[in-house]
Amino acid sequence: MRILKKSAACALILAMVMGLAACDDEAPQQSSGSNAAMAPAVTTMTSASTTTDPNAGLDMTDKETKELDTSACPPSGNAGVIKYLGFYDITSDQKGTEQCLIFQSDLYGGTIEYTSAAYGTAYFEKLTTLISSDDSPDLVTKDAMLYPGNVSKNLFEPLDDYFDLSTPLWSDMKSVVDSFAWKNKHYYYPHRTTTKYALNYNKKTIADNDLTDPYDLYKAGEWTWDAWRDMMIQFCDKSDDHVGFYTTNDTITSFIATTGTTLIDTQPDGTITNNFLSADVSRAMTFLEGLCRDGLTYGKQFGDWVSPQVFSTVSDNLLFTCTEPEWTYIAETENLQNPKGVENDIFDTVSDFSFVPFPRDPSADKYYTEFDTFGYLIPKGAKNVSGSVEFINLNRIYDTDPAIIAKVREDHVNPTKIYFDKGKYAGTEKWQMKWGEREYDLWREMCDPTNFAFVDEDAYGFNSEFKDDIGVLLMGVVERGESWSKTSAEFSPVADGVIAPYMS
Question: Phi/psi at 455 (nearest 5 deg)?
C-alpha cells in the first residue's frame, strides 16, 4: 500500500521546489510549489505536509506515515554517517528533504551531518581547504561553476565504478551524465533535470490582442523564431506602450541553445571549444539584435528587473518574459490570487499565466533547450563513499516512480482543499496553488531529457568574472542593439584566454 502525504510539498521530479512559506492565520499563504515523485513502497517512513521552501524540500512538521519501494537498488541498511557540505540544510525540520528522512530511517541506516557553505566561489574554496586538510565531506551539492571549471581541479571522485548507466534506474539519464564527463570519466550523476528557462506570457493578453496562443503553435510544430518575432511585431504595433520581450543576461543563452550550439562547449575528452564566432551563435544573436533594433525588446519601462510579481501586474503591456517557468508561474499566480487577508484570496482557480519553450530555430532539426540539473558529487578524500552512493541512488529512486508521478500530478492540478483550524479564519479555506493541466503537463514534458534535446551551456562554469563579462556582452546586443559581429570578435580572444589553462 502506498500512503502519500495529504499536501504536496516535496521537490517535483524534475525541478526544485519554489513555493512560499505558510504564514499565520492572519495571512493564509499555502503554496503547493512543486510536488515530489515518491517511489513504491516496502518500508514505513514519515512524510511531511504543509509548505515548501525555495531551496529545498519540506516543512518537517505534521508528519505522517509513508512507504517507499527501493527494490530497484536495495539499500544496505548500514549506510553510516555522511558528512554533507551544502548551501542549505537538507536534514533540518524546516528545509529538509524527504530523501533525508528515508536515508536516516532503519531502511538505510544512514546519518547525515550538515556543514554550511556559501554559494559560488567561496563554496569551492571551502571544499578545497577541507580536502587539503584531510577533512573532506562525503557529499556536496552541485554548483553552477562545477563544470568544467572545478571538475577539472581534481576535487571529486570519479564514480564510474559505482553507477551503471545501462540499468533501468539510470539509463534515461545517460546523455545528461555524459554531458558532464571530464577526461572520459564521470564525476556527477544528476538525479533530476529541469528546463532552465522558458518564455512566460499571459493567455488573456494573447487573446485580447487577437494573437495565436504560443502553446497552440508549439503543439502544431509551428512555434519558430519567425512566428515569435511576428507575434511581437503585431503586439507592439497596437500601442506605443507595448513591449515584446524581456530577458536577463543569464537567460539569453537559452535562446542561443535553440540552435543546438552553446557559447562554450566541453567534450567528454576534455576538449573545450569557443563558439563565440560560430555561425549558429552568430545567427541567434543577430536575430536578437534585430528584435532590439525593431523596438521589440525591453527598455526598462517597468524598472530594472521584471520579477514574476511585476510581470503579473504589467503583462497587459509586456508580452513575454524569459525566466524559470515553474517559479515564475507560481509567483505571478500567487501575487494576484493570494494577497494578505483571506477575504482577498481567490480560491480554486487556474491562472491566466502560461509558458512555452523557446521557439525552434528554423535551421534546427528539433527543439533544443538549455537545461539544469540537481544532484550531488563525492569529493576527493571522502571517508564514506559507499554511503554517499546509496544516497545518490535513493534520490534517483525517489524521482522515477510512475504511480507516484501520477499522484503528484493530481495534487498539482486538483489539490485537496485545506482550511484554517484556528484564529479568526478558522474553517475558512486556505489558498493553494492550482496548476492548469496543460501547464503542468508541458512543464513535465520540458523537463524530461527523453522528450527534449537538452543543451548544456558551459560558458558560466568557469568563474564569476567570466560569467559577468559574458552577461554584459549579451545584454548589450539585446538591450542596445550593439553589433554581435563586432563585440564577439573583440571578446573571442578573451574567451580563448579563459579556456586555455583547462586545456593543458
Answer: -125, 130
Transcribe 341-379 into DSSP letters: SGGG---S---SEEEEPPPBPTTSSS-EEEEEEE-EE-B
- Work out the angle between the directed axes of helices 464-480 and 279-293 (0-180°, nearest 10): 50
How many domains in the chain?
A: 2
Q: Are residues 242 and 356 in the same domain?
A: yes
pLDDT, one tens digit per residue, over 446-480 is 998 888 889 999 999 998 899 999 999 999 999 99
pLDDT at 67: 60
For the segment 299-320, what is each residue's pLDDT rounded down to a tens digit?
Answer: 889 999 999 999 999 999 999 9
SS3 235: helix
The answer on pLDDT for 79 being more than 60 is: yes
Q: Which domain holds residue 162?
A: 43-195+372-438
One domain, residues 100 and 165: yes
Please give the grid coordinates belonging to residue 423. Answer: 484564529
SS3 282: helix
Between 46-60, 68-82, 279-293, 418-432, the lowest mean confidence (pLDDT) is in: 46-60
Helix-strand-coil percent breakdown of the chain, rounded to 5?
35, 15, 50
Domain boundary among 438, 454, 488: 438
Instruction: Name which of 165, 101, 73 is nearest 390 in CA terms.
Output: 73
**Residues forming beta bridges with residue 82, ordered by sequence position:** 112
DSSP per residue over 421-452, as a string?
A: -SSTTTTPBPPB----HHHHHHHHHHT-TTTS
Please check whether residues 457 and 434 belong to one and the same domain.
no
> Are 184 and 256 in a shared domain?
no
What is the pTM (predicted TM-score) of this model? 0.85
Read off the CATH number of the domain in which 284 is found: 3.40.190.10
pLDDT digits (tens, 9 = 90+) for 112-135: 999 999 888 888 999 999 999 999
Same domain, yes or no: 464 and 423: no
Closest CA to 401 of 143, 40, 56, 51: 40
**How far is 141 from 373, CA to CA, in rounded Å?**
11
Q: Comparing C-alpha atoms, which of 211, 216, 401, 201 is closest to residue 311? A: 201
Q: Is the pLDDT of residue 21 over 80?
A: no
